[in-house]
Design a protein that fits this description.
globular; disordered N terminus; 20 helices; about 0% strand; disordered C terminus
């Protein structure tokens, strides 16, 4: 009876954490979208949405090939689907804001589930872990993914990849493998690096076998099926031209720092190999490995990247790796010894302090980008509606909404593009019903933003408060 009641309390605590984190996170990121996201397209959206989707839709000649066509080396199927849905509902009037709102809804649900799922296995450390993780995802460190609709592919990559890992550890039988393969396909249709999920899932089956959870033959069969499925999906999808890889002393230093960050996961992996791990330990180790593989791809293909001052759109992937390693450290602290608890406490405190200390930098860059986009929108309106052909002639590169100035002018001079841009920036006589409803909704929220935001954050924190009060008495389930 006590065991059943304890399991019920853990499950109740999980859903309470999910609800509290979701309420806070969705409220904060929705406020950012309403305050800073422009209606106009920015960089990738011009070619990916305006040219590839909206112009053919307006001409009643939609092409199905664009669904699996590469954009910046990635298929980005789910990002395309959101934008296509917005154009279809909005009568082919482009609006960045509703796509951003839906993206943040999905992100808040995903982040809440992942944070709560990790925290319920961390015993007395769960309260500090939730506080640290909530600060990182709520503060605008990934601001680029918040205010630009086509900066969301990493959301889908993370969701499908980690879902595949969790299913591989938790689910048994052929149906479980089928679900894993489906999630792997979803990851590969999100971004090119989604193929890493297959390799990590295969390793997860090996670890389950080593931990005594799967028979040897079953583990190797499952691993072989996953590898073959990954290769088949990779071959069937289109491929980008080879990317020039860069490596030097700077990348070496970043790699060494990343290896230091992953040391707790390596130590937890050693416990699993010694048959002293739990299923949640395998999940944490595999997510950390997956994050390390994503980081390696970024280091090799993006020489401008800096691990200590990263590009904002990579923050969420880096956070997955960092928090998987932090969760590994907490699991080690719960297992034995006196050194690990001290390290876990220090790491959690450092994470909370660093998240708060670095927030002004994140806020500065988000407002900087939002200011540039607002200036670009004014210049688009001047160019189209007032005939100011010099609106973008001598403007700084960071204000341009598209990197190629001449290409931008050609797009803005196209009559169908002007119609797609709507009534404010373009030549559409009136907004579509969907865009008008979106504006009415966001305006209503803006009028009461302070009260609604305070209410949502307060409600979410109240939901989480019992967990923080009781965290010293909780034990980690196995």
């Amino acid at each position: 009876m006590k065991s059943v009641r304890a399991d019920g309390d853990v499950e109740c605590g999980f859903w309470r954490m999910v609800a509290g984190i979701f309420v806070v996170l969705f409220a904060v990121r929705t406020a950012m979208v309403i305050a800073f996201a422009p209606e106009m397209p920015f960089y990738d959206e011009w070619d990916g949405v305006i040219v590839a989707m909206a112009q053919p839709m307006l001409a009643h000649s939609p092409a199905s090939a664009f669904w699996l066509a590469l954009h910046n080396e990635h298929v980005m199927l789910w990002s395309k689907a959101l934008s296509y849905l917005q154009l279809r509902i909005g009568d082919v009037q482009y609006d960045n804001v509703p796509v951003c709102l839906v993206s943040q809804l999905l992100y808040a649900a995903m982040a809440a589930a992942l944070i709560a799922g990790a925290a319920r296995s961390l015993g007395r450390h769960r309260g500090a872990f939730v506080a640290c993780a909530l600060l990182i995802v709520a503060l605008p460190y990934s601001w680029e993914c918040v205010i630009a609709s086509w900066a969301n592919p990493y959301y889908f990559l993370i969701a499908f990849s980690i879902a595949a890992i969790i299913l591989a550890v938790r689910v048994r039988g052929a149906s479980g493998v089928a679900l894993v393969v489906a999630c792997m396909a979803g990851a590969e249709l999100s971004m090119g690096s989604g193929a890493f999920a297959g390799a990590v899932v295969s390793f997860a089956y090996v670890l389950r076998c080593r931990n005594g959870d799967l028979r040897v033959a079953t583990a190797w069969v499952f691993s072989a099926v996953v590898v073959l499925a990954t290769v088949a999906i990779f071959i069937l999808l289109p491929h980008a031209a080879p990317v020039a890889l860069h490596w030097g002393w700077l990348q070496t230093g970043e790699a060494m720092l990343a290896m230091l960050l992953l040391m707790p996961a390596a130590c937890l992996l050693a416990r699993i190999v010694q048959r002293r791990g739990a299923s949640c330990d395998i999940v944490f180790v595999c997510v950390a490995i997956w994050g390390g593989m994503q980081l390696a791809a970024i280091l090799l293909a993006r020489p401008e990247f800096r691990l200590w001052y990263p590009i904002s759109r990579y923050i969420d992937v880096l956070a997955c790796m960092a928090f998987a390693s932090l969760a590994s450290l907490c699991r080690l602290a719960l297992a034995n010894g006196q050194m690990w608890p001290r390290l876990a406490h220090a790491a959690l405190v450092f994470g909370i302090v660093a998240a708060l200390a670095g927030s002004p930098i994140a806020w500065h860059w988000m407002t900087w980008r939002a200011g540039n986009e607002a200036e670009a929108a004014l210049r688009i309106e001047r160019h189209i509606n007032h005939g100011d052909h010099g609106a973008f002639t001598h403007v700084a590169q960071e204000i341009l909404p598209y990197p190629d100035r001449n290409r931008l002018m050609a797009l803005l001079d196209a009559p169908d593009v002007r119609y797609i841009l709507g009534d404010r920036l373009g030549t559409r006589p009136a907004p579509s019903a969907f865009v008008a409803a979106t504006r009415h909704f966001t305006a209503a929220l803006s009028r009461y933003a302070c009260w609604l935001l305070a209410l949502a954050i307060g409600s979410g924190l109240l939901i989480l408060m019992p967990m923080w009060r009781r965290e010293a008495t909780l034990t980690a389930p196995t």
